[in-house]
Specification:
The complex is a heterodimer. Chain A is an alpha/beta fold. Helix content of chain A is 40%, strand content 12%. In chain A, helix 1 (4-25) packs across helix 3 and helix 1 packs antiparallel against helix 10 (260-269). In chain B, the strands form two sheets. A seven-stranded mixed beta sheet of chain B has the order 2-1-3-4-6-5-10, with helices on both faces. Chain B has a five-stranded mixed beta sheet with strand order 7-9-8-11-12, with helices on both faces. Classes of the chains: A alpha/beta, B alpha/beta.
Chain lengths: 276, 315
């Protein structure tokens, strides 16, 4: 088990990777990648059971990134874990790279499902969790990270209803509640509150926490594992663009790459010199 | 009249449940209509009722497939293929081993009217690169196609009828994926048909034969990948080919045949199908109106293949 300090160090590394790969690609979504760093770090460096070099190992825990545009954080984590080469990261979004602009299950076997057309990932995760209940050999859990704007889509609530109906205790959903979506603040685009009440009304075990507090995230994941007969949702209160002051809490950095000067400033804030 | 293809597939699934432990069924509150209820009663642990939420159904089916199961997700053709966005990403792009079953296809459903008719489903399903598209012509073929699909690894669309269909094949019939079936050969015109209208096309050919017109009939059960070899062969035999389907004239069998034969010089194809939104009426009323019964198909064939004769007759 890694220490919290180790995990915090990894978070900074992932933020640096995210910014560098998006800058290299010249496009991408930094805001919603940076907001999910602690959650993804907790998953890939403490919670998930998976095998480096064996992406389709039948016993692995499944992670579905429903907010597919946030995939740079996942690529960064996979590279840090040794699943993909660090040298692949700058090829993000380039022709021939398995690191597609949004997750590609066929080109990159570490991606559990193609996502990016928002609202679909939780349904797929429900299907995977059902498959696990029919699997006599393997025991695994299914995790699904949702964007907050994404859960404005009706299909998410169809999926939420079905997960509760089937009593999927092996399913944990996490909402990256960074309060900002492409066109502006979530509260002005389409308010989600009272969000915890909504999930509870749909039959879910709800935990709401500071999504940048690794200790709390780890505790919540453990609590979810112990929950019986119903799925758990962790509503992670986060900050869009977390860690880079000029990217925080603004829709301007939802889907824009930093230029060289902006990258340098951002990395300096993260304590890294040089924008190599 | 024989069984509806939906009933045949329902029975086949129930049988397959025994030999194929990974076959599961996902339903959206239509199991009585789509006839997957029998499977659900026999294998309740492998039957997932998601309610009237077809988008979620498609996604859940994709997840089940990615988890190693062989899901059949079933609804009316228009409702399930209406969730095209979910089908294209969660099923198609993932190359998930999901069998999408669309029942109640075409105007042949009758009284319920347009809102329940699948008339565009072939067009959208054919558009996905890895999607296989099959439409059986009778109950036996439907049963055999279902057996094939249970063992086929990859996304597929199976298009079925609400109404009972005349039996064309017997139990000895062997379903060959991707291979059209020549029910009769002709030298003047070949009708390429699919689904419930195949029997009517055959009857139309017999009527025309009685008038001395030699018309071949091909049952094209696999619409994608289409049997290009057979199409080229019949195009070599008869310059004129007429396609018949209970589906809109854009994007279905007719389009597939035209695409396959576009580079063959000297071939003329007439696409016959539904040219408007549907409406309520009996099956017979609607097939007469859209000229999809034997009489209508024969008349359209004559207008296409023997226009001069028709002009003479009416002139």
């Amino acid at each position: 088990m890694r220490s919290i300090e180790d995990l915090e160090g990894i978070c900074t590394e992932l933020r640096v990777s995210i910014l560098r790969m998006i800058a290299a690609a010249g496009s991408g979504h930094p805001g919603g990648s940076l907001s999910a760093v602690e959650v993804v770090t907790a998953l890939y460096f403490a919670e998930l059971d998976y095998r480096v070099g064996e992406p389709r190992w039948a016993g692995r825990d499944r992670f579905v990134l429903s907010k597919g545009h946030g995939v740079p954080v996942l690529y960064a984590a996979l590279a840090r874990a040794g699943c993909i080469e660090q040298a692949e990261l700058p090829k993000l979004r380039s022709f021939g790279s398995p690191l597609q602009g949004h997750p590609d299950h066929v080109r990159l076997p570490y991606m559990e499902a193609a996502t990016g057309s928002l609202g679909q990932g939780l349904s797929v995760a429900v299907g995977m969790a059902l498959a696990e209940t029919l699997d006599d050999i393997n025991d695994y859990r299914v995790y699904c990270l949702l964007g907050d704007g994404e859960i404005q889509a009706g299909q998410v609530w169809e999926a939420a209803m079905s997960a509760a109906k089937f009593g999927l205790e092996n399913l944990t959903a996490i909402v990256d509640y960074n309060k900002v979506q492409l066109d502006g603040h979530v509260s002005t685009i389409m308010e989600l509150e009272p969000l915890a009440d909504k999930w509870a009304a749909f039959g879910w075990h709800v935990i709401q926490l500071d999504g940048h507090d690794l200790r709390r995230v780890l505790q919540a994941l453990e609590e979810a594992r112990k929950e019986k007969a119903r799925p758990t949702v962790i509503i992670a209160d986060t900050v869009k663009g977390k860690g880079v002051s000029f990217m925080e809490d603004t829709y301007a950095w939802h889907g824009k790459a930093p230029n060289a000067e902006e990258l340098e400033r951002a990395l300096a804030e993260l304590g890294v010199g040089g924008a190599a | 009249m024989g069984k509806a293809t939906r009933a045949a597939v329902g029975d086949a699934l129930k049988k397959l449940g025994e030999t194929h432990p990974r076959v599961v069924v996902v339903d959206a509150d239509l199991s009585c209509s789509t006839q997957t209820r029998g499977f659900g009663e026999s294998y309740p642990e492998r039957f997932f009722q998601v309610g009237i939420a077809e988008g979620n159904m498609v996604g859940v089916a994709a997840g089940l497939a990615l988890g190693g199961m062989v899901p059949f997700a079933s609804s009316f053709a228009c409702f399930i293929t209406g969730r095209f966005e979910q089908i294209r990403l969660s099923v198609g792009y993932n190359n998930a081993n999901v069998k999408i079953v669309g029942t109640h296809s075409g105007c042949g459903i009758g009284e319920d009217g347009y809102s329940q008719m699948g008339l565009e489903d072939l067009a959208v399903m054919r558009s996905l690169p890895n999607m296989v598209v099959i439409q059986p012509a009778d109950a036996i073929e439907a049963e055999k196609a279902t057996e094939f699909l249970a063992d086929y690894d990859g996304p597929a669309y199976l298009r079925l009828t609400r109404q009972g269909l005349a039996d064309i094949f017997d139990a000895s019939y062997r379903f060959e994926f991707g291979k059209g079936v020549e029910l009769r050969t002709g030298t003047d015109l070949t009708i390429v048909a699919t689904g419930g209208v195949v029997a009517y096309a055959f009857e139309a050919a017999e009527r025309l034969a009685a008038e001395g017109l030699d018309v071949g009939v091909v049952n094209m059960h696999t619409i994608k990948p289409i049997d290009v070899g057979l199409l080229r062969e019949v195009a070599g035999r008869t310059e004129r080919i007429m396609t018949v389907e209970d589906h809109g004239v854009v994007g279905g069998l007719g389009s597939a045949v035209v695409e396959a034969l576009a580079e063959i010089p000297g071939t003329s194809v007439h696409v016959h199908g539904v040219r408007s939104y549907g409406e309520s009426g009996t099956h017979a009323d609607l097939y007469a109106h859209h000229r999809l019964d034997a009489e209508g198909i024969a008349a359209v064939a004559k207008e296409f293949a023997w226009p001069a004769e028709r002009a003479e007759a009416t002139g």
